[in-house]
């Protein structure tokens, strides 16, 4: 074969020399066979060249010396073809696939990025596939500008909190809309979906993109596109396996060990006269022991000594090394008309805390049929997952194991004579005497005598049809189903201490079923035509219907028979004994329905591939609004200018690409439910049904409207080696739900009225550059940063209201902390000091009178990510960082580890430096003084995190040629969450709320994997 | 042919996807709109919802809430003292320092009006359907009116300046409609009482003419006896001794006191096994809460308040109430006496019991006090007789007392504390009498303290401006 080519080339070269000047014609197309207009065709090493027409054809006169033609076009990789003696040279250009030049998928349209006038960012499969994290939303962190992603919990499968361009609501929703292959899917329910099937995620941020979604678009739209097969390609199988381990990350605070603790107890007894434990109870300094004989005191010393040396590592009891494995099998390929992609994915993660895990089976098949006139795309996925969950997480309750790790005393041994002794159950075991509060043991007992499991079936089916009626006009339809069924099971075993606490004192067994179904369908017309090679028109008019139904049902039975404790058969049916209900099971349920009907019109006009005008209109009707506000219009207008295509810019050598765009539009935040109706719900009274008023009617109930202005610039310089984009936006959300307080005599506390306004404006920058671009060595770096300024501008009838330790006030951002300012510890008395509003310092604490702002908000001022990709031959190293800055959070963990009221629980070593005598200069107040909520516990939660490192090696092709059948082998080593730089002293600076309360901490995961194709 | 095939399939799917005409007219699946209330059956269930609202955590309540009208009046009075086990959630109330922005005060205020508005829905709508069965309508409306009067009186008990008949002191707003925007003005004490009596008198008339007994079994609803018992209580508060005696007498005749021999039956009252002496209870079925838990939470064995030691000492060992009300429970290595009255139903330890709103013994105490204080004719004799009857049915081998004059009044007051311990009377009893608290712990509340009339919640003043009580 090679010989033949060489011969052929030689022949062509000689033949070419025979002619002095000749004409070459041809057609330039993209991979799909669509013509590429305005591509340039030049003779290599000369300025001789031509440009393709709208149908991609060109005509070029070449001198006889010409040997090669170079085809270049924006968005495509350049291609060099030998001329030889051919007179027709057709070129197929490969589209560039980097983050800035691509296709934008909006769910209704598919647009070339250079024709797209909105703000969007694309996250590529590389960032999403084979990452050891079960929830897709978490993978978006730092990957795209304008999106702030925080995980609220490290529990396997936990969803993230996703905010696009700032919090846009006070009492409503800030959750973006998720679309997968054209079908709207439930937010925060991704644990069952395999992220390895995802090809791209488009994050749509401005109105020109989101107004197509009208009443659901205000919080941004996240469009997920899964992998599909290619027509005319042979079948390729892929196997991807990885294994790994996870370990916990450590908080920066330290708790006392037994020695410190016993000494602390004695000091508190001596100095403050408070008995907080055996360190004082058995102290020789304790006046109560003064009269005891020396022999007893000697015995007491021994008790103290043995307690001092009993160091129980509670973190070892509740935490473990987690494990991770994932195995994926894929097959993809296609014939002339039919192509397919199918995958099976097994994912298993054992959490770093005992009793938490996730196991998942995902199946996907995507089928495409394509003929001249008719195309059909079917996307199906069905997934099953089961997980075991730790409850009470993210609370300060003793039942939260992550809190009890720290509450537990270091000399608390959970097992006494091999039996777990929890608080209050010592009588079970012959009244053993313990000198601690058994807080760790109680949490452990609870963890071991209860279960909390869920299993989930999640399916998404989407069918996309297109039939070309005649040139340019097609009839289109998308329909589908999003289905999720979660079955939960909670058990409390009989015969355990916890089992004795429930009704009937013999354990409980409960199950719940929650089902979500969303039916979706749309149909309409698409008109797409280029007229006179100058005017390109794309018009869509679509009618759409969405209906979501949620249903939940649950029961809990009591009086569990230990032999059948794992099934409902163990439940003792309720009966009435002596007029008293005994083991009466509880039954409950809830549900919701929501429907949306819409007309969507999207139009685009492009002149000379340079000037772009875009408009969309949507008319939405919803079941969640009173008749007066049921139907509303949403719209957007946008314009773009591909300046890079103007000749005067083309002449500037170093600019390879330049375009500007602007858009403005109106959208709304999604609302479901029946907030506008006067509602009665069932309430039982004395064994009969009663009806209770649950909601009062609100005739003026309306949407929360967002008006977004966006202006953006995309550029590429030095032959696109440096690429970037800048976006500025101003988003004003009006009509925000505010709880209008009603007179209590109205019978209900408040009415949700549409009265507030808030503003988010910001700047988003993306920059990427090819530092080295050689044949064997490429090094690309890129990053993004998003600044967002959030400000409440109107609250209707009031100027502020207080929410816990935060305040919602006009002129301030959402999430602003509101507490008295800490002024240190009085060195003379050890009392805590606070600032009055007038700046004077006082020992009095008055939250109403002293609370102040100025400690920031838990929402960051800026966030983003950056990455580096280095390829050397087969070796590839990807490093990815994410970060957030300017966010302040309330550290309730510090509070609990230092509060004297809970001194019988273990405390932080910080308490060892407490004020003890006049003159002590310290930040820890005297023991016994009230530890109040103040600015002291507000900490900077800014962080920089080495989120992902991936080192891979692809076996060279030359080696593989010898192995029949295998076309590609790649081995890799991957680290997740490896390092975090932060001043935050608690578990994890990243969280989805303003207060840290012993959350399930994020894990550090290291995996090794192999992927092969054959 | 091929063309039609494709077009028709696409159109068919489009049709399937976008059909269903009335799709947006959806009703919530687990609630219903007010307009759906169409007959007396529906109204009766709305009335059931009014009773259920009295289970609100800030009305009769639950653990970790104010339980405003169940145990709170005892806690802020002098029947109890706080222990080290307390989580101190109620300190601002317990030590009388709460101001108008105190959350519990606002919640207790709100809980009351929440029930009132729903009662108003019954009162204002029942007549639409009364043609079907006037006597049944009477039964429903009578209860709703009695509830409205009763709950308003509870509001007056905390917020009113006093209970003077025709008094010009500051009373309460009286809500008689269901409109969310109408703002009832704050009436004088006298005008408030007039409204309460209008409702209560109408209720008594209506409940006398009903289609069937209000309570087929149990005492969970306000029947004629309960309405009269409420009237007796209110009459005593406003020192209308004639009416207090008359109404109390009616109730005592209908629901007599248990005999001493029935000491088990007396104990069974507190485990909801017996209806004796019960006039009206607000029922807490399994899982619906534990109204007495703020004093002693049996499930978690937390005794936040212990019985005042002097009061505790006044129970003799021959008093059958002692073992029922107070018991020693072990906590860790210590043991202490706790309020055991609301411990739970038989065999249970969850504090889940019905709240006993009105009992016959209160009627004896009302009649005795009214007579002793009216003190005309044979009043003193009758008062002593009632007091001795009550004591004689509680204390074994009781030697009838011979108190007269102030000693008699004091003895009745003491018996009130002992009999109604933890039942939500003490604060109001002090408020309507000498207004002085001198706790064993040394805490003192003088008669002129502002706290005797609670502050109108700050949030209420913002939304419905009205005169604030003095001192706030």
Number of helices of chain B: 18
Shape of chain A: globular
Percent in strands of chain A = over 45%
The chain-level structural class of chain B is mainly alpha
Give me the count of strands of chain B: 13
Mean pLDDT of chain B: 91
Largest sheet of chain A: 22 strands, antiparallel, barrel
Q: Helix amount of chain B, in percent?
A: 40-55%
**What is the rounded distance between the termini of chain B?**
87 Å
> Could you list the spans of chain A in which at least 5 consecutive residues all have pLDDT below 50?
1-19
Q: State the helicity of chain A in percent bands.
A: 10-25%
* SS-derived structural category of chain A: mainly beta
Can you tell me about this structure?
Chain A has 1014 residues and is mainly β. In chain A, a hairpin with a 3-residue loop joins strand 18 and strand 19. Chain A starts with a helix and ends with a strand. The N terminus of chain A is likely disordered. With 472 residues, chain B is mainly alpha-helical. The model of chain B has no long low-confidence stretch (mean pLDDT 91). Classes of the chains: A mainly beta (1014), B mainly alpha (472). At the A-B interface, strand 24, strand 25, strand 26, strand 27 and strand 29 of A face helix 1, strand 1, helix 2, helix 6 and helix 18 of B.
Key traits:
heterodimer; A: 1014 residues; mainly beta; 22-stranded antiparallel beta barrel; five-stranded mixed sheet; 14 helices; 53 strands; disordered N terminus; B: 472 residues; mainly alpha; two-stranded antiparallel sheet; 18 helices; 13 strands
